[in-house]
Amino acid sequence: MRVLLVSMFFRPLEQALPFFFEHLEALNPQPEKTVFFDFLPEQKFSLQALGKNVFVEKKVFEKDFPKQLSELRNFALETARKEKFDAVLFLQPNLFPPQDLIEALEKTRKEIIAPAFFTPEQSLVFSNAVKINGQGIEPILFNGLLPSGVKKVDSVSLQALFVTGPALEKISFEPVEDSVSEMLLLARKAQGLGTGIFLDSSTVCGRLSQLQLFSHYYFKAQDSLQPSPG
């Protein structure tokens, strides 16, 4: 399967990028092409370091950012159609994918599916899947996804989304004001296409936390201080 991976870089996620790149390098199979939309004020990495099939497009925030965001997503979808890709994987850099992410999502044979990721909040753990109640949403708790596996849901966060098959040929996005509206829009789009939205809770992406980043960089620094053998 030919997969186009698409991600967007923003300043709040900047510290996660080295960790994110490490996880992308470990993906097996690899996406055939990766496109990064870079909104960082300064370029902090080189194309050579990211590989020959990785492309970085420098962007600046426009006044109507929701419109800009939807246009970038639609550009990625149109690129996939034009270049005959089989799937598009949208993945934000605060999410760290498992090595078999692409293979696992492909095997589900679902047109619109997301890997799971979880956000702890006080004593609860929320997933990236939601139930829709009228014009509002209710996040699905971790326990609500047990036992793990592929489950049909009302909608999911667009931070991690795999689109393939007939949905890839037809889906598009319009500007919305916030993440809740994004999920409501995705649900309407799927319904209009006559397909469902699914979450694979057995395929889990790690999610950025300050402790995770601190531990990662701390041990990297310790390793660099170790004397070389001999």
In summary, what is this structure?
This protein is α/β, with parallel strands linked by helices and 230 residues long. It has helices at 17-26, 47-50, 65-82, 101-108, 165-170, 179-193, 210-225; strands spanning 3-9, 33-38, 54-58, 87-91, 95-96, 112-116, 118-121, 124-133, 136-141, 150-153, 155-156, 160-164, 197-204, 206-207.
Query: What is the architecture at the second tier of CATH?
Result: Alpha-Beta Complex
Average residue-wise pLDDT: 88
N→C terminal distance: 46 Å
Supply the CATH class: Alpha Beta
What structural class is derived from the secondary structure elements?
alpha/beta
Strand content: 25-35%
Which term fits the overall shape? globular
In which range does the helix fraction lie? 25-40%
Largest sheet geometry: 8 strands, mixed
Total strands: the figure is 14
CATH-assigned homologous superfamily:
Spore Coat Polysaccharide Biosynthesis Protein SpsA, Chain A
Enumerate how many helices there are, as a single number: 7
Along the chain, the helix and strand elements come as EHEHEHEEHEEEEEEEHHEEH
Radius of gyration: 18 Å
Widest beta sheet: strand line-up: 3-2-1-4-12-6-13-10
How many domains make up the 3D coordinates? 1
Which stretches of 5+ consecutive residues score pLDDT under 50? none
CATH fold-level name: Spore Coat Polysaccharide Biosynthesis Protein SpsA, Chain A
